[in-house]
Amino acid sequence: MFPARKFVRLDAGFRMHRGGFLPAIDVAYETWGEPNREKNNAVLLFTGLSPSAHAASSAEDPSPGWWEDMVGPGRPIDTRRYFVICVNSLGSCFGSTGPASIDPRTGEPYRLSFPVLAIEDIAAAGYEVVKSLGLLHLHSVIGPSMGGMSALAFCTLYPRAARGLVTISSASRAEPFAIAIRSLQREMIRADRHWQNGTYDLEDPPQTGMRLARKLGMISYRSAEEWAGRFGRERVGAGHVSGDVFGNDFEVESYLENHASKFVGSFDPNCYLYLSRAMDLFDIGEHSGCVATELGKASLERAMVVGAESDFLFPIHQQEELADCLEHDDREVEFVSLPSIQGHDSFLVDMDRFRPVVSAFYDRS
Amino acid sequence: MFPARKFVRLDAGFRMHRGGFLPAIDVAYETWGEPNREKNNAVLLFTGLSPSAHAASSAEDPSPGWWEDMVGPGRPIDTRRYFVICVNSLGSCFGSTGPASIDPRTGEPYRLSFPVLAIEDIAAAGYEVVKSLGLLHLHSVIGPSMGGMSALAFCTLYPRAARGLVTISSASRAEPFAIAIRSLQREMIRADRHWQNGTYDLEDPPQTGMRLARKLGMISYRSAEEWAGRFGRERVGAGHVSGDVFGNDFEVESYLENHASKFVGSFDPNCYLYLSRAMDLFDIGEHSGCVATELGKASLERAMVVGAESDFLFPIHQQEELADCLEHDDREVEFVSLPSIQGHDSFLVDMDRFRPVVSAFYDRS
To answer: What is the pLDDT of residues A282-316, one digit of tens each?
Structure first.
């Protein structure tokens, strides 16, 4: 698994943004393409909540990545031209240190002894990767969803590290509606008695809680309009109500069940809880009280903010506000609102709309 | 409790719309005002999923009802002029027979032996009330949310019983997005080990499942816009992250917790499951395949369809479709789209917008 994965290890430890200290961290990443002679063609890619660093296939790992259509030779982020680095978020469970990792001080998994995770920590861990590669003048930093939050945090923590920024279906701060959904997802996991206050047996994790949380995730990632067209009132099987009055009779119920089952077992519940909460806590304007002031510090030459009109988790008005806050002297800012019907997930699904937009950014510069 | 409540009892039994038979049923209701001499001033009011028949205060029960602002002397549905009857839905737990009621054949609660509940059954139980009162020529039938579905079912089952129809934030059939949300709510309750396949101890019900389901309900009943203005990123108490990383730090989390706690214990979990599923199964066009054909059968002279633009559970496009389907020769149909920001719950909250609309319907005729 993950044959293309590389690591940066920080043995000196890592001070967390909201307090707390990790005695050592690993940051997992993958790369595509090669740095150019001037070392100015690197693109740092942050992920959403659940993916690994495997954004695209490569010679070392030919399995399709989570953004296969976007990254590669001849793709919108063309790896013949750019050196692309994707990092697994700190706090996640695909190689980077997180609540499921072993605390070297105890020999046991951190679990809930892991300090409060901030999006800023994910950004700082990403910075350690680019520093280790000697690439402190990035062409750009890019991320969808939580990855866009990480990219924004990166630009405020390291205002001179990137010339370009692309956020997709993201936000400069969490709004209460998204907080409510994520809070409920966390509560579902915590209410599962198998969770055991985070000390669950790895062979017997809170599967029910994770399944419920994933289903709510999928509801919040898509749109009513898409599902109306896709599922309508179609029934599974014979098309009438099954003997079990609470069975998954409707196609949409069966669809959620199938997808949730795949997710359960592939993601560590405590890692999910920490990453989810990190999004709620995120507010780029926290320090100065103003998003625009924070983002004004970054020496970005170009920024692009992309959103989907049907996204209700990271709604289009937040994209527009973010674009407004990015406006700054000598900075070119573009706001792109796409009429995709797939909701928050559009950037993973509606590639015919998202590819040209990302292409236009990376072709030009 | 419920001193104003009256009952109709059907000792001959009740045949359910989707099969199954109840050997006897009670239908609880309350009334306001008096029938006129022509017996043509009766208004039948169906409720949403969770309320009782106590829509408004009265001399017998001065406690405020769930639609206190809408029903009463001088209110939009003016009880000096109209005789208003509100029924507790069949399948609910506030007096009408439902899964929590005793099956006279066994002396035990029905629980999951209760037959599949359809919205049509709620409508038929309401018809038994008006029949018992000798009021088979209603001025109108009205209902918000699930109550609007019941009102629509009533008009198709008894096409000559009402001259007017008002549906508010309702739908002629369930769409997959709403089905997905309700299906997940039911799964939360069923996943609670206290549910015990419906045989829970009444002193130890599936409280966690009910609390989670209610929270998801509240998320789906409101709107992101309202919460952004109301809660923003406000924190409970000292305004910083509490020691418990997964505590209810944000105001919106605390709000959900408080409201969900109130709901738990006031509603029977099995009743909730049955009513919720009845909404998913509802499709007024089921028989002929066409909503308009079904609604065309009713001899309605006037119909009004009201919706809130921010409602994503019963979205405005469904209201508009319903109004279109109601169009018929010699029938006056009005579609009212309100810019309320409180989502599906607007009809309970944004009274300044909803009152005049309902007033206009009832003042004129």
So the answer is: 999 987 878 888 899 899 999 999 999 999 999 99
Answer yes or no: do A277 and B232 touch at CB < 8 A.
no
pLDDT bin (cut points 50, 70, 90) of residue A363 is very high
- What whole-number distance in Å separates Cα of residue B254 and Cα of residue B239? 13
B268 catalytic per annotation: no
For residue A299, give Cα distances in angstroms to A158, A177, A303: 9, 32, 11
Contact (CB<8Å) B176/A252: yes
Our answer to whether residue B324 is catalytic in this structure is no
CATH 3.30.70.890 describes domain A6-174+283-364: no
Domain B6-174+284-364 identical in fold to domain B178-274: no
Nearest-angstrom CA–CA distance, B307 and B314: 8
Q: Output phi, psi for A274, to 5 deg.
A: -65, -45
How big is chain B by its Cα radius of gyration, in Å? 20
Q: pTM of the full predicted structure?
A: 0.96
Q: Which of A52, A96, A140, A145 is catalytic?
A: A145
Confidence of residue A242 (pLDDT cuts 50, 70, 90): low
Structure-token pair, residue A358: 């990302």
Asked if A179 lies within 8 A of B116 by C-beta distance, the reply is no
> What's the ipTM?
0.94
CATH 1.10.10.60 given to domain B178-274: no
CATH topology of domain B6-174+284-364: Rossmann fold (3.40.50)
Residue where the block lists tokens 């104003």 = B4
Where are the domains positioned within chain B? 6-174+284-364, 178-274
For the segment B58-103, what is each residue's pLDDT rounded down to a tens digit? Answer: 999 999 999 999 999 999 999 999 999 999 999 999 999 999 999 9
